[in-house]
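Troubleshooting log. The previous run stalled partway through. Resubmitting the same two chains, unchanged.
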Amino acid sequence: MLSIEQLKKSLFVSLWFAFLTFPLLVIKVDPIERTVQWRWENMALVAAGSFLVSLLVRVFQVQQERRRERRATGEFVDRVPIMQIILSEPRYLYTLSGAVLLCSLVFPFLFSTYQTNIMITALMYVMLGLGLNIVVGLAGLLDLGYVAFYAVGAYSYALLNYHFDVGFWMALPIGALLAALFGVLLGFPVLRLRGDYLAIVTLGFGEIIRLILENWNEFSEGPSGISNISRPGFFGIELSLEHAILYLYYLMIAMVVFTIFVVNRLQDSRIGRAWVALREDEIACQAMGIDKRKTKLTAFALGATWAGIVGVIFAAKTTFINPASFTFLESAIILCIVVLGGMGSIFGVIVGALILILLPEYLRALSDYRMLAFGAVLVTMMIFRPQGVVANIRRSYQFKSKAEGEG
Amino acid sequence: MQKPVLQVEGLSMDFGGIRAMCELDLDVHQGQIVALIGPNGAGKTTFFNCVTGIYNPTEGNVFLNPPDGSRPIRLNGLKPNQVTKKGMARTFQNIRLFQKMTVLENVMIGRHCRTSSYIFGAVFKTRATRREERETVEKSYRILQQVGLADTVNELAENLPYGAQRRLEIARALATEPFLLLLDEPAAGMNPQETHELDELIKQIRDDGHSILLIEHDMKLVMSLSDKIYVVDYGKKIAEGSPREVSSDPAVIKAYLGEDIDA
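Second attempt completed without errors. Output:
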């Protein structure tokens, strides 16, 4: 399987790791007792661990290489991944979605309020992911300031509620519209930018919004935030906290279903195809008669709309917001959801959001290592499965072959 | 006589201090296949980019006279997508397909400028949108049949063999319903068999009522196809005329053809 040469390389990697981690993991100075502890067993662990990981990577690479060779000679036929089969066959897809929906509907009755609450958060990120998916996954515009629109939505509800006592349902479309407006506002100056440049500008935009919220005390109450935001109204009935959470949960389920419906429709439409084409080749796209400006702005505005909606819901859920909820880290997490889940794939984004939001919640015991694991997962994914957990598949037009038979 | 569908007058293009194209005149008449040839770096692709709106020419005028007799359209300063909408489509020298989209979708993109449904229509699947979508699929499929790619509609564009990718580019351009088609080296990298098929395809497209302006290095193809040939070198036109006239023109032989015929 592996040559001696590769074993040697792995051994070298493990030694190098042991050396690198030596000051951190082996030496422990106790300043009170004035002693130095030498924890050599850690070094052994690091060496063994890195040796194994490096070996695994090598085995994987060798397999990949073989598969490629066999594919080139034609004796190896690609197996279609099970996920792709399910997604491309409507029968399976509907059964699966139905089952998932059913599970999510009975979820609050099977688990505690605490779990439901976590699930609400996860669903919010599903929506955020799906919204960003329009911008990043479909239109290919790397947006690192997505959280700005989320903040716009949240603050529009919070401020409207605080000053004018506007209710949740009134604020929802207003927040969405305002966010869309900001989307267009950001869209205009970045129309000419692509790739890294676009990423930097959007990153800056996200920070600007956060800094304004943090420093403009008269407008947004600064870092102390806005509290006592009303929860979503339910035909004027006062709900207990437990029921309010339940209500919010079902609201989120409905919203997510709505989002999936809309994004799915958009994806297979004229405008959805234009987005993908824009991602693939901007010049060819224009030469085919697509208005780059309009298409890009639409993508920004629509993506932002979703962030705005979730922002309003977020404000209603926590009843308290301050700028600390809208840091760059949020943008990064949402982006990770999209990239990890699978760019452009609705199902992938849902899976990505659930993994990235639920896992840290349930692995609280390991919370010290959360960021470490996060980074490691990202690096591994990008090396071994850059297309994400569930890769996007293009719609195929089956009835065409029939038409050919007729014609 | 009818006005030429494409009328280029004194077109010049400067890049900084360099004049890449100098006062070029060129006419394409309805139903003609016109070839633009010249050595590498002569400014042929620059010409295409000026005409299609990717560059804004420094001097000169580009007019489109739609064969249906409607008013002439001045193309200077229009964006590429507007130019396409006016009825002139192009292909690219280095293939620029939408690699991760299927063959059919690539052609459907070409239909974009002839359709109009937007967000509202897409989300609610209104009757108009559904009809438009059905038409888009059908028309795209018919074009794919025409260029001989009907068997690969659901393949990703990147998985097609090279010759098929070239034909897909032509199909995509045809989907925009142009009356004038600009082909930038359509035979580049093709084997003789593929070139022959391309020759047939281009003639067929012409017979369908399209006018064609062609940049090509394959002299056999150019000579067999063209009604008229323009030769450029260093951004200047050095000859124009029928294939026979051009191939015997001493200036052309000196600049370009001489080596090619010897070879």
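Takeaways: The longest helix of chain A spans residues 40-73. The beta strands of chain A are 27-30, 35-38.
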